[in-house]
Amino acid sequence: MNQQETKQHKSNGKRKILLSVLLGAYDFAAVCVAYFFALWMRFDFFYSHIEEKYLYAFKHFILFYAAFSVLILWAFRLYKTLWRYIGLRELVRTLSVSIMLSVIHAVAISLIFWHRMPVSYYLGGALIQAGLLIGIRLSARLINSWHTRRALSHTAVNRVMLIGAGNAGQLILRDMLSNPGTRDKVVCIIDDDPNKRGRYLDDVPIIGGRENILAAVEKYRIDKIYLSIPSATAEQKRDILAICSETNCELKQLPGMYQLITGQVTVSAMKDVAVEDLLGRDPIRPDLSGVYSFINGKTVLVTGGGGSIGSELCRQIAAHQPKRLIIFDVYENNAYDIQQELKDRYPELDLVVLIGSVRDSRRVFKVFDTYRPQVVYHAAAHKHVPLMEDSPCEAIKNNVLGTYKTAYAAMVHGCERFVLISTDKAVNPTNVMGASKRLCEMIVQCFDAKIKAGKANEIPQLFTHEGCENADKDGTGSVFSSCRTEFVAVRFGNVLGSNGSVIPLFKKQIAKGGPVTVTHPDVVRYFMTIPEAVSLVMLAGTYARGGEIFVLDMGSPVKIDTLARNLIRQAGLKPDIDIKIEYTGLRMGEKLYEEKLMMEEGLKKTDNELIHIGKPIPIDQDLLFRNLNTLMNAAYANDDHIRDLLIGIVPTYTPVKNGAGSPTITVYNASAEVDKDEIHAAG
Fold it and tell me: Which of 643, 648, 515 is nearest to 579 (CA)?
């Protein structure tokens, strides 16, 4: 603390002492005045009419009583309270002390002077004393509030509508009124309770229910809308926010009941309305106790562990005592970030972070041979649709062959469960990325079927090299006799906030002043949050019996154009006025809508009503494995006609250019030779 700060600290200390002394002097005088006024009032305000015995008792007792009262008030810390922020608790405490002092006064004066004062003296003195003691303290609050309102009227630039006149709304309003530096002013309140309509809350009118929102925004020239109903369900919030989104106001809301319970209801606790609040359903909160007991004490491998889904998987797994957590990712920056986060949060965790590609079979085999993971969550994949349309061979190498190699390594190294992260774009795919993920689903289903049939030895090991990664080292096939891995896939839609998703792109475009680019005004997508996606993935590892495709009921699809406009409004801007929206047209391989199941797949319920299992579609397993070998050769030859081969392997794949029209199919020569050295170098 420097010299200036020390001087300021001393000055503040002296000011506090002075204020306490002045308040004590006031209390001393107030007590004397209260009981004199009560005695004077008893004799009709004629001093000469007061009987001598009463006047004698009063004069000889009141100074001692007043001094004693100040001492008691000090003992109850009533000179250390910030009275400009006085609340109900402080008022009750002051009233309680005043009543106690009045009782002491009545008993003491009777005992000392051996006669009773008039009853009106005791009652009147007690009431006046309480009024004076509380009044001076309450006046500090009122004066501060008046100054705040006056300052607010001069500085406020944002007119706020508050939705919710309950406890949370009252706390938000009073927090704003007690903050002279705020630039927001609540000018009206919305509440659906008909009993509150037409009333006032701290001089702010409650003008009606949600049906009045649009009219009130125009009438009161609203700039911001604060939603302060923490107990509302997701559907109720969705309905209210849907109305608010039709305005051009900035939207904020109180996160939830936790803030109300813990007393953290302040303007600073308000958060921007997230896009997931508009999805229209409650978050999926399945019972994960079975998942965590399954993970506890096991070695778990997460491929792509630095990505959006992979990193959240790592967080949830790390929180529930695995024997060891292995993060495998080709991108070292992401892997480093999640490594540092987990080391900080879980210092006792046995964490292994490895850099490598699932395309490198030798590296993958080395990882499985060294660490023997019991559960594998395979999240590593290329997922960007337009980029994979431009580089289809890379989608095959990474998604298809990377999945195959990782699944094969898991099978021959005694892994218990292998969970593939898939996508709704795998349903009737129109792009290479979706087709590659559908092929991944087919691979894990074929692996599972072969193992259940006791024919794991019939699964070819693609990209076999001479060396440690060769599964059947002794040539006897004994390694396949103990294969028991259960393979499942998990299919879900777009993940809010994930790397490469549309929402971060929209927010960047809005921050730059636009334009916001939407492919088509009618394009719709299903959305889910990252925690929901991860919960589903982890549940799949528990529900799995092998060969299933787990599907999440993601509620109603969201129109991307509406999503973009809501994001613009949430930023306090006007679509098409402040921020332009441009329609760029569907990109190669994009659909207007996404599907969750193919027509051939039936649905079976699980213990969670929002999680379903798609019935596996029959697949010619041996033909698929032969085609995969051909596809592998074409991918590493970087064949320009690889889409044609993919059409023959994935029956539901229909490539579409620019979202319309039919693909041009050429005949692919499956016997084409490729450079074997290039294949082996790739892994």
Answer: 515
Q: How confident is the model at residue 3 (pLDDT cuts 50, 70, 90)?
A: low
Q: Which fold has domain 289-495+526-554+598-618?
A: Rossmann fold (3.40.50)
Q: What are phi and psi of 127, to 5 degrees?
A: -65, -45
Boundaries of every domain in the chain: 16-147, 156-273, 289-495+526-554+598-618
Return the bridge partners of 494, or none.
Answer: 527
Q: Is the peptide bond before 515 cis (omega within 30 degrees of 0)?
A: yes
**What span, in angstroms and rounded, lies between the C-alpha atoms of 491 and 614?**
10
> What integer is the mean pLDDT of 168-195?
78
Are the C-beta atoms of residues 36 and 74 closer than 8 Å to each other?
Answer: no
Element (H, E) at 528: strand 527-528
Q: Which residues pair with 300 in a beta bridge?
A: 325, 375
Q: Is 524:278 a contact under the CB 8 Å cutoff?
A: no
Question: Which CATH architecture describes the domain 156-273?
Answer: 3-Layer(aba) Sandwich (3.40)
Angle at alpha carbon of residue 586, lines to 508 and 598, rounded to 5°: 110
Share of the chain above pLDDT 90, in %: 24
**What's the count of helices (H) and strands (E) in the chain, helices before strands?**
22, 22
Between CA 48 and CA 69 the distance in angstroms is 28
Give the residue carrying structure tokens 């299933």. 548
Query: Looking up tokens 């009709």, which residue turns up?
Result: 44
User: CA-CA distance, 75 to 539, in Å (whole number)?
Assistant: 59
371: left (phi over 0), alpha (psi -120 to 50) or beta: alpha
Query: What's the burial of 481, exposed, middle or buried (CB within 10 Å: 0-12/13-18/19+)?
Result: exposed
Provide the token pair at 489.
């896939």
Which pLDDT value is given to residue 496?
A: 63
Q: How far is CA 393 from CA 340, 401, 403, 597, 623, in A?
A: 34, 11, 15, 26, 21
More confident residue, 583 or 677: 583
The Cα–Cα gap between 7 and 16 comes to 14
- Paired with 528 in beta bridges are 495
In terms of pLDDT, which residue wins out, 664 or 244?
A: 244
Q: Which two tokens stand for residue 141?
A: 């609050």
Name which residue leads in pLDDT, 289 or 579: 579
Q: Is the pTM of this model over 0.70?
A: no
Strands (E), 530-646: 549-552, 558-559, 581-583, 603-605, 611-614
In contact, 210 and 239? CB cutoff 8 Å: yes
CA distance 632 to 621: 16
- Same fold flag, 156-273 and 289-495+526-554+598-618: yes
Residue 331: which pLDDT band, with cuts at 50, 70 and 90?
Answer: very high
